[in-house]
């Protein structure tokens, strides 16, 4: 089983740095939002596409990250991702139009982040079992700590070196992903060995063929066919969880949850500025959101590892998503800095809480052996809402002239995600109790039938004996 410690803590440290370089940097792109809008003279919707494309590319290419880490190596995948993400940020510092930023900051940086994100998270799941939620809490808190530190730093960099200089420095910082990749030492678990198909078992090949295989070159047609069969079988085994009803429900709820949470990170700073908050205070709101995110990550991770709450992780996740939805519904009423601070605290805490539980929930549904592939799919499902929601929210702001409609849509989307999982769990419980009652009724009927059959045979025997006894008795009377 997983070692639950040792080198596992280095994996957690590596994953922590990966989440700083990927999720925190993505969030800090919203600080560039106002700069890009002013420099290129474009509306909210068009400028919002930059953040959307980064998020979408990160999640859309997550299965590619899983594929590379499964078939080549986790280390190679993360290092390659680091180089791509860094190149994207450096090229963005030379941007001459929004379209240029869509490609460099959006597609290239997003693809780099994708190759790093899901493999690093899956590695934590392979090294931990008993302390899984705590390990994930620490690893995922990189997103919050990174936002807390980077938000004011990025604001200072923009003031000192303009947005171009700030992007260039971020490009250098993101190269740290290559260091994280070097830490990801692979581990072999019993569960992984069980999933190896029978094609790989030596007993499957006749003895004569074994001798031939040693002599034949790697490029021989026999080996090509054999390896193709193995690859098809492996690919199917890797993704057979897609047909599980539990995973299907989780997938649909993730779509709504991702739609609701994405616009807030793009529009919190512009919204704060629109209600008269200063630039530094707006960046400070992002910092609060980030640091409380960490508290949510670690405390929720630690709490849900306790024996009393371990069984109720599912409902803890639902509660966290629902609370974030409620926060979004109240946001349009909060029109000054003192009111926006408690919002950042609450939203940040519950955002950290459910982000920690996404890999734990996925592992509970599909098991550890399919975790890397399943996380790839779960983060892939984030892609479509991440791409669509900020521009839709921007269009609503441009059309209505206020942020109210955008934030209400986000809130209702997250609440629906939570309710969907809640109803799914209730339906599962009702079905289970119904099946139990059916089996117990059948058992009772069988028991009664068995008892009835015994009783009938006993009375039949008694009746037969009574008849014989009466016959003997009447004969003796007539003789007398």
UniProtKB/TrEMBL annotation:
InterPro entries: MFS, MFS_dom, MFS_trans_sf, Proton-linked_MCT. One of its GO terms (cellular component) is basolateral plasma membrane. It comes from the Eukaryota. It catalyses: creatine(in) = creatine(out); guanidinoacetate(in) = guanidinoacetate(out). Keywords: Cell membrane, Membrane, Transmembrane, Transmembrane helix. One of its GO terms (molecular function) is transmembrane transporter activity. Its main location: membrane. SUPFAM superfamilies: MFS general substrate transporter. It is a multi-pass membrane protein. GO terms for biological process: creatine transmembrane transport. This is Monocarboxylate transporter 12. It comes from Oxyruncus cristatus (sharpbill).
């Amino acid at each position: 089983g997983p070692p639950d410690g040792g080198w596992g803590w280095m994996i957690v440290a590596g994953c922590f740095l990966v989440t700083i370089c990927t999720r925190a940097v993505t969030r800090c792109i919203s600080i560039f939002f106002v700069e890009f809008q002013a420099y290129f003279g474009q509306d909210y919707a068009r400028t919002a596409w930059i953040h959307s494309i980064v998020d979408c590319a990160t999640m859309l290419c997550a299965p590619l990250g899983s594929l590379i880490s499964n078939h080549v190596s986790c280390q190679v995948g993360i290092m390659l991702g680091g180089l791509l993400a860094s190149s994207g940020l450096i090229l963005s510092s030379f941007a001459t139009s929004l379209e240029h930023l869509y490609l460099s900051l959006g597609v290239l940086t997003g693809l780099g982040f994708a190759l790093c994100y899901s493999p690093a998270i899956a590695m934590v799941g392979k090294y931990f079992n008993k302390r899984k939620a705590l390990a994930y809490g620490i690893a995922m808190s990189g997103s919050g700590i990174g936002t807390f530190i980077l938000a004011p730093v990025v604001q200072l960099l923009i003031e000192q070196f303009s947005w171009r200089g700030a992007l260039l420095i971020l490009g250098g910082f993101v190269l740290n992903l290559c260091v994280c990749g070097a830490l990801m030492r692979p581990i072999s678990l019993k569960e992984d060995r069980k999933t190896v198909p029978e094609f790989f078992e030596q007993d499957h090949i006749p003895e004569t063929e074994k001798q031939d295989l040693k002599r034949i070159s790697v490029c021989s047609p026999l080996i090509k066919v054999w390896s193709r069969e193995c690859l098809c079988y492996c690919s199917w085994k890797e993704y057979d969880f897609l047909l599980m009803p539990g995973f299907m429900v989780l997938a649909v709820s993730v779509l709504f949850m991702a739609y609701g949470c994405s616009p807030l990170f793009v529009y919190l700073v512009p919204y704060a500025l629109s209600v008269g908050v200063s630039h530094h205070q707006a960046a400070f709101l992002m910092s609060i959101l980030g640091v409380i995110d960490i508290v949510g990550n670690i405390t929720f991770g630690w709490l849900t590892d306790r024996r009393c709450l371990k069984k109720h992780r599912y409902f803890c996740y639902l509660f966290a998503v629902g609370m974030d939805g409620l926060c979004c519904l109240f946001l349009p009423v909060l029109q000054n800095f003192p009111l926006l601070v408690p919002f950042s605290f609450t939203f940040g805490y519950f955002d950290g809480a459910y982000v920690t539980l996404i890999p734990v929930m996925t592992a509970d549904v599909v098991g550890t052996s399919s975790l890397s592939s399943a996380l790839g799919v779960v983060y892939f499902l984030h892609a479509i809402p991440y791409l669509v929601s900020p521009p839709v929210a921007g269009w609503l702001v441009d059309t209505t002239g206020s942020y109210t409609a955008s934030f209400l849509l986000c809130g209702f989307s997250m609440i629906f995600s939570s309710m969907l999982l809640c109803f799914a769990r209730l339906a599962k419980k009702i079905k289970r109790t119904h099946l139990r009652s059916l089996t117990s009724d059948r058992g009772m009927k069988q028991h009664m039938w068995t008892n009835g059959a015994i009783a009938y045979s006993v009375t039949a025997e008694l009746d037969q004996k009574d008849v014989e006894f009466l016959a003997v008795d009447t004969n003796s009377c007539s003789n007398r």
